């Protein structure tokens, strides 16, 4: 079945962390690969440290009038929806070749063995769809290790009570340079009896495979990397895939649907090119990796004879159990006037990384929290973002919410920017999968190619907040021990839109999962999903390393299938 | 006390403090554009002196200088090229025409208010009178929104990359204690020349072409 003489062996839709490993491995194996990417192809030479381009305006994400989402949230007892073009709450995360991996900060964590069997380890939680994964940590471990050298991960393996097993003793590269503030964090943690760990990063500390090492501009997260040191799917994988001569990337190509034949197999991808002209391309195998929300949306929009409710959705599972990262964020100031001139000079250093995290409560065994062991999470420390425009604009209000200007405003801006260092922390804990967090299609709002947009219902589980608060208090104690001022933090059920997964669970039961153990659709034999959509539970760290590792794993399965 | 004309608009105007969001049709925008000084896109040569200024820039210039006055320790609006920055911004591709409309409307209200309270244009008032008037304006929602927009643009002129026309030679970064990151953008790499911003610009031109006639 399928098309005679298809245009490509494999068509990969989406070029981020889920698409890159597949494109590279298949091209290396000699197959003809096409990558369709909706966004532009921006390269190292386009990535400048310009807050106007990255943040005040965005060259990386679509205009919300053209392409948006509908966000559904609970107010009192009612679910109310609002298009993001009205709220301005964007769920786009970097639509370009390499996807949002171009814009990550690159702090990289593996999951731990217990994350693969959350239900067996900690039991069910009322109102949450917690399940075990169909594979174990041991099955993914070789691919975590593979990512360390293929993507380029720098770090230092350390013994810790919750360390995950490693098949190689140490990291591919030594850690990146560290900011002087780490001495203060380390001392505070030691005084408190906590074990501060060095955070691995998908950032090169030494040149590798044609990429330069980190140049320590200090503008990393939210910015594209000008040196190529950041392990984006583009810099680390796709540039190499293209160099094989077997991989073609078509940027500015918005895939609107996958067309399936009467047998249920996918035969073609339909997309709109830069001039908005509809195009079609055929392939033997299709790999969808558009990031969780858009992957589910594409499948739901791809109705066919054998897939009347959308591709791979005959059991109504596509879009279900969408995940984010639960937790929160906080900060504390270290005013320079509190310290010696030399100490202040050190803290003002711009460039090196903080590279510190706490996983002492990745699992919580504390009667004050619960009467049995529970899943906790990770605390990551980072400096205040060096962006100034947003920081300065928020200074124009006084404590009573009245506008200020003149010398008073400039004084306040200078003090906010140059008067202190600010240490932030982020808490990552499991976003429990529930029936109230999922992707569907909106019945009214369409994108500018007249395709229904994704509607996101954003329910959360109260338990997530309880864990987030527990961890935030631990993080707060570190800031207090450091003598920080103006310490504050917040934990809410509002999801971070840049940390998404789930929606197409992998599993062994066709009734409760979309993909099989190989991340192939249960009811569509030539369709794979390789972004974070496959994750049944999310773990308590950022997702990117796991997405990369799983995509390398699935790439081998696809080669076997071809 | 004279009632500020800004307060009359309180309920009808809503401005997002970050961007300034309004509705305005294209026809109205084209009318407004006709009132702009005739400079081509990408022009860097905006060196108009106050005496040569026409409205709304004459009043905007006076407001900017009142909000960021010259002083011994701080930067005045002129030093950061605040007026030139804003004039260039209003001619950039993808600028929201509603922002310019709001700027002009605010200038109208400001001078109505100056006329009704002092029988003078805002720019002709003394520094004390200007300050008092701006303080009064800030008490209404629309006035606060308008001043907030002017302030945001002053801050952009103070701290955005010099390639956008403000912050000459990084004077604002130095004064505020900011260390910029490198590499910095060139004129050909301003946001409206790249990625989705560039694409949006092309898309709008395409739509305009296909809907003509």
Automatic annotation (TrEMBL), chain A:
Domain Glucose-methanol-choline oxidoreductase C-terminal: 433-551
Domain named Glucose-methanol-choline oxidoreductase N-terminal: residues: 90-322
Oxidoreductase keyword on record: yes
Coiled-coil blocks: none
Keywords: FAD, Flavoprotein, Oxidoreductase
Highest rank taxon of the organism: Bacteria
A Pfam short name: GMC_oxred_N
PANTHER family tied to this protein: LONG-CHAIN-ALCOHOL OXIDASE
Family under the similarity heading: Belongs to the GMC oxidoreductase family.
Name of the protein described by the UniProt record: GMC family oxidoreductase
TrEMBL record, chain B:
Superkingdom per UniProt: Bacteria
InterPro entries: Gluconate_2DH_su3
Any single Pfam family the record assigns to this protein: Gluconate_2-dh3
Stated name of the protein: Gluconate 2-dehydrogenase subunit 3 family protein
Organism: Thiomicrorhabdus marina
